[in-house]
Amino acid sequence: MTIHTDHASTAADSAADPCAARERLWDAVREGDEYAASEAVFAALDAGTEPEAVLLDVIAPVQRKVGTEWAADRITVAQEHAATAINDRIIAALAHRVRGAARPGAGAGRVTVACVDGEWHALPARLLAEVLSLRGWQVDFLGAQVPVPHLIAHLHRTGPCAVALSSSIPTRLPTAHAAITACQAAGTPVLAGGAAFGPDGRYARLLGADAWAPDARAAADRLGGEAPLLPGPRSAHHPVDDLPHLADQEYTMISRTAPRLVGETMAGLEERFPAMREYTERQRQHTAEDIAHIVDFLSTALYVDDEELFTGFITWTAQILTARKVPAHSLRPALDLLAGRLKDFPRATRLLEQAHRALGACTAPAPAPTSDTTGHGKPE
Known about the structure:
The chain folds into three domains: 1-101, Methionine synthase domain (Methyltransferase, Methionine Synthase (B12-binding Domains), Chain A, domain 1, Orthogonal Bundle); 102-242, Rossmann fold; 247-360, Globin-like. The chain has 17 helices and five strands. It is of the alpha/beta class. The longest helix is centred in the C-terminal third of the chain and has 24 residues, at 281-304. The N and C termini lie far apart (59 Å).
C-alpha cells in the first residue's frame, strides 16, 4: 500500500511539473495525438497547476517549439499546422473547464484582443485573451486578420478600456500603424504585443502604441496594474507624424509596384540563369514567393526606417535554407536584380547593400541554379 501511495504521489508530482507537462504535450502534438495532448494538459490541472501557468508555462513554450522545429526542418508544414490546431483546441477545452476559476482583476473591465489585419497567427492573442479572462476581465477576442474598419466599429459599439493588438509578422507593421492610429482616434488606448513589434518593443514605440508587452503575462500585468492605460492626445494625428522619413515616398512607390518588381526580378533571373526556364510551375511559384517576401520585408524596413529588420529577415531566410540543405547564397541574384531596379531609391539601395553584406558573412560564392531546384535552390 505504501509503495502504491508513493507511486501515486510521484505521478502527481510529475504531472504538476511544468517541464514534464511540456514534454508530454510536445510528444503528443508532434505525433498529432490530440487525446494525449489533452491528457497532458488536464493532468497538470488535476495535479494543482494553476490554469494560467498551464497556458503560459506549458502550452505557450510548446507552441514556440513547434515554430523552432519547423524552422530547423525537423517537422513538416503539415505537422506544424496540426500541432497548432491541437494547441488551439486544447486552449478552448481548458477555458471551458476552468471558466468558473476566474478571479476579479485589479481594475478589471472590458478589453478587446485582436490580430492585425493580414496576421493569421492567432494563438498568441488567444493565450492573452484566456489569461485576461482568468484574471476577471470581460474579453472580446476577435481572432485573426481583423480589418481596421471592423475593429473600430467594434470599439464604438462596446467601449472597451483598451485594445490589445497582436502581430507576429513584421510585414504587417504598416497595417498595425494604421490600426493603432485609428483606435487612438476612437479614444481607445492600444497595448501592442507579438514578435512583429521587435524583441524590445521598438516598433510599438515607433508606431505610437500606448504600451508594449513582451508576452501574455506581462500584457495582463500591464493592463491590470495600478496605472491605467490611457490614450494620449491625438488631435490631428497622422501616421507620417510618427515617421517623417515616409515623405521621400520610397515605401509608397515600392510597396505599390511590388507585383511588377517581383515579375521583373523573375524575368531577370531567367535571363541570367537559363536553367530556370526548365522549372516546373511549382518551382516557379516557390521562386516568385521567395522574391515577394524579400520585397515585402524591404518595403516594411523602409516604412520603419530600420535596416536590421531587413538584414535580419535575409539572414533568417539563409538559416532556413541552410537547414533544408539549400545553399543560402542562392538569395544573392535576387538581391542584385532588385538593387539594379531600385538604383534611384537611396534608402532601398542602402538596405540591399547591407543585406548583401550580412548574407556574405555566412555564404560562399553562388553557382548558377540548376533545373533540379525549386525556387532559390529549394529541393522538391
